[in-house]
Amino acid sequence: MKRKLILVLLHMLTGILFSEKMYAQYPENVDQLRSIPFLPNPLIMDEGGKNTPVENEKQWNQQRKWIKEQYQHWISGTVPPAPASFKINVLSEKTEDSVLLRMVELYFGPDNRAKLTVELMIPPSKKLLPVFMTQWNHRGWAQIAVRRGYIGCVYAAADDRDDTQNYKSLYPDYDFSKLMIRAWAASRAVDYLFTLPQVDKFRIGITGHSRNGKQSLLAGAFDERIKAVVSSSGGTGGENPFRYTDDPFDNESINDITTNFPDWFNPRLRLFIGKEDKLPVDQNSLMTLIAPRGLLLSSALTEPEGGPWGIEQAYMSAKKVYHFLGADDKIGILFRNGRHGTSARDIENYLDYFDYVFGRANIKPENKLYYDYSFEKWKKLSNENINPLRFPVRELEKSGADSNSIAAFQRRTRKQIQWLLGDEPKGIAANEPVPLELHKQSDDYMADVITHPELDTAIKEMVIGPYNALGEYLWGNIYFPPGTKIETGTPKEKLPLVIFLHEYSHGTGYRRRCETIITNFVKRGFAVLAYDLIGYGTRIDEFKNFYSRYPHWSLMGKMIADTRLLINDACTRMSFIDKENIFLAGYSLGGTVALFTAALDNRIKGTAVVCAFSPFKTGNRLTEGIKHYSHLHGLIPRLGFFVNHENRIPLDFDEVIAAVAPQKLLVIAPTEDRRNPVREVRNTITKAGAVYEELRHPSNLLFKQPETYNHFSEGMQEEISSWMEQIVLRNE
Predict the structure, then answer these.
(1) Buried b vs exposed e over 471-506: b needs ≥16 C-beta within 10 Å?
(2) Which of these, 304, 593, 337, lies nearest to 454 by C-alpha position?
């Protein structure tokens, strides 16, 4: 009875009917799987176990077989073998400007009940021709390919026309998902192409966009007759690894994609919501199945489901296999400006790549990276070399019971924070009043491309920049309550201010999914100031050369410096802000920035953070550890010297929070946060709480532990805004 209830619940969640056979393949608990915090290393066998390096072709073939099995089991579902034969029904054939247009139906499978419609566009040639394969709704792409000397092959396995809808019922012993079914259909089109005398069988390329980009990757990974793949804006389940699409990355998470499109992937994928590190393989693993054949990853920098940082991580991981196989030049990456859609210029670039891989032309992919950082590169740039053994093993320093001792302790802690963040260059603050007028027009084209939050039209918005810019020439937006009184274009009354700091939303900055948090604050009478942290949204370009420009500083240091300059602006340049009521709010990365900022700046009235930290020394042993900051994201490089010597780090978050005291602080830490183990976070709060006790303000530190995974729920947003409202009301 219990088993049947579970099957019913899973069906309700996914919309997919689970069979007893399918359920039997589930482990009782995916927690039993090994945690692989970084992307799975395709050149390590039995990762997390024996960790055997792949050193020869035999081992790689074993690893490749294992990746296929794991990917089909957990993500795509299993596929039937290729049909032994098929029948061809020619629907039409004509010539247009010397191009042969042929429409055929292929019949195969049990009793030939599976059908696939294929349109061919064959330009005149006496030589064998390469093939440009794509899906039904990309026929316009094939038109461009024909002019470039390709046979255009368009197959009906896409939303516009999908001949594959009965495949699952024809092959009940296989649990392939919709995207894998469509990829398997692409292979049936290749079966047909191999019968044609005009086809160069060694130059067949496939491409598709969005969900068709996903299926193109799948088709290339599981059919070696396809010699090149261009995945265009495939997003989650495409170019972007699942590990880097969960809520802290403000992307299309496993939860989002399996809820909105439950039949795209195998239902087992849902088991990894909030446990993405347990996936034995990821999208980078899938990409390695294409090696050493051609692979180009393409996406728009600022599209909501893109994630340029995650895509680069997948590219760099897969490139290791291409290097191992001696095919470095066969993998490429191409970012375009704009949103999700494509245009003719993009398709021409895709064809340039096919031409290059097929030896038809020599236009090499530029492979420009925006997040080309590594700890080793930073060490060479900075020439820093810190010996962790010179630092004593230490716990939270006892501050003493009197106010002078506590103040001295906090001053020492702030010095440690500043050392860890690097050597901040000297600078000056803007000093002229901000001549503000309420308007919504921005001159920053990247902000316009990303688009603005879809807020209630009654909420007033002020764009700041370029000539009245924030801090050091930063763009930002301030949102005002609907009832704000305006005189001569400026708010008349003094308003409490919340500076909102966003998560690891590389492509979109603060703008995506921020409507609820902004609305919650403004309806309670707050002004909200939001801006993009360096390396995110409108400021992607600033990441690339940051450490060449500032080798001894840190990205986290720059983020905090920018935020403190905004606080200064609010206190000195904005006459409509109540400088006694300035608050910080942040989720994930933004929460970390908020904590450090609050520790360094006593002008903050209160700070609220969600999923913001775990201890440097103990909290992330099952995730990236301090490498999260020093190696993966390049936020605090100096931490990298303390890898395997974490107990010697001269600072931890208990001291950071103790330095915030007695400012009001709300910490929300979900119990199922894989990145920030709740026990370690709780211990940190307990230690820091002692300082709040010593200062006789224990109620100023509030700790909440909702039973959920790492995300910024509407309930959490409501709680943060309500908490700040109560602080302001009590002050009044």
Answers:
(1) beebbbbbbbbeebeeeeebbeeebbbbbbbbbbbb
(2) 304
* Joined tokens for residue 447: 């902000």
Q: Please tell me the predicted confidence (pLDDT) of residue 590.
A: 98
pLDDT (tens digit, 9 = 90+) per residue, 584-636?
999 999 999 999 999 999 999 999 999 999 999 985 555 789 999 999 999 99
d(CA 198, CA 628): 52
Residues facing residue 443 across a β-bridge:
none
| DSSP-derived 3-state class of residue 83 | coil
For the chain, the straight-line distance linking the first and the last C-alpha, in angstroms and rounded, comes to: 58
| Domain 88-198: CATH superfamily, name plus number | Alpha/Beta hydrolase fold, catalytic domain (3.40.50.1820)
The pLDDT value recorded for residue 58 is 97
Structure tokens of 188? 């049936």
297 near 314, Cβ under 8 Å?
yes
696 by Cβ neighbours in 10 Å (0-12 / 13-18 / 19+) ranks as exposed
Is the CA virtual torsion 705, 707, 712, 714 positive or negative? negative
Residue 648, amino acid: R
- Our measurement of the distance from residue 600's CA atom to the centroid of its chain's CA atoms, rounded to an integer in Å, reads 29
Q: DSSP 3-state assignment of 100?
A: strand
Q: Are 413 and 599 in contact (CB under 8 A)?
A: yes
Give Dmax over CA atoms of the chain in angstroms: 93
pTM for the full predicted model: 0.93
**356 and 362 Cβ atoms separated by less than 8 Å:** yes
Which of the residues in the chain have pLDDT under 70? 1-28, 396-401, 435-443, 488-490, 619-622, 732
Q: What would the DSSP string read from start to end of 504-546?
A: S-TTTTT-TT-HHHHHHHHTTT-EEEE-PPTTSGGGTHHHHTH
Q: Are 157 and 185 in contact (CB under 8 A)?
A: yes
User: Domain residue spans in the chain?
Assistant: 1-76+227-369, 88-198, 380-731
Determine how β-strand 606-610 pairs with β-strand 577-587: parallel
Does 88-198 match 380-731 in CATH topology?
yes
The C-alpha torsion from 10 through 677 and 593 to 591, rounded to 10°, is 40
Angstrom distance (rounded) from CA 689 to CA 703:
10
pLDDT tens for 208-258 read 999 999 999 999 999 999 999 999 999 999 999 999 999 999 999 999 999
Instruction: Look up the CATH number of domain 380-731.
Output: 3.40.50.1820
Closest by Cα among 606, 603, 592 to 653: 592
Q: 451 — alpha (psi -120 to 50), left (phi > 0) or beta? A: left
Residue with tokens 């084209």, as numbered in its chain: 445
